[in-house]
Design goal:
Elements (H helix, E strand, L loop, with lengths): L11 E2 L3 E5 L5 H8 L16 H14 L2 E6 L4 E9 L14 E8 L8 H16 L4 E6 L4 H9 L3 E10 L4 E11 L3
Helix pairs in contact: 1-2
């Protein structure tokens, strides 16, 4: 079952990161990574063509109130986002009774390979299970996105099935590898 969630006022610190609500003041950092070819496409959206486009998308994301900014403590830059979305498990009989959200994330290419996304996802997993009382979390990746697969597996998610993801911005349907992490009783 889907659960309402609002990031307003939520701050989750880790060793190297601060996860906090995304804000309009993050525009320059947001555009800096969202405009890099390949970053958005790995998550099913087109890289941004202008700062005006980023501003409109950022406004929509901040208004949704379910997206964390990932701020790198060392340079205080927003280097990505991590959102809690409606899960594919909400429509699946075996998991329908679970209080569940889906984790979706993107990270600036300049920060890949440093173990930052497993750190962010791990902190959000703890928050979702310990504070929100969720029963499960799901996460997905496209088969060719091996970096995302490694993050998902490092964080303890288990592969469930292949699904489909329709990306309107890219006008394409992707195969989608779907995973779940069930909270220990």
């Amino acid at each position: 079952m889907d659960v309402s969630f609002d990031v307003t006022g939520v701050v989750i610190p880790t060793d190297r990161l601060v996860l906090r609500p995304l804000a309009m003041g993050d525009l320059d950092d947001f555009y800096a990574y969202a405009s890099v070819p390949g970053v958005g496409e790995a998550a099913g959206w087109k890289h941004h063509q202008s700062i005006a486009e980023s501003k409109e998308i950022l406004r929509s994301l901040t208004e949704s109130k379910h997206i964390f900014a990932i701020e790198y403590k060392a340079d205080r830059k927003v280097i990505g986002t991590l959102g809690l979305h409606q899960s594919w498990a909400n429509e699946t009989g075996a998991y329908r009774q679970f209080r569940v959200k889906e984790i979706g994330y993107v990270l600036s290419r300049a920060y890949w390979g440093r173990g930052l996304m497993p750190e962010a996802v791990g902190a959000v997993i703890a928050y979702c299970f310990d504070t929100l009382g969720l029963d499960a979390l799901t996460c997905c990746h496209f088969p060719e996105n091996s970096r995302s697969r490694r993050v998902i597996e490092k964080c303890g998610f288990k592969f469930v099935r292949m699904g489909k993801f329709e990306s309107e911005p890219l006008e394409k349907v992707f195969d989608d590898m779907q995973y779940i992490l069930i909270r220990d009783p």
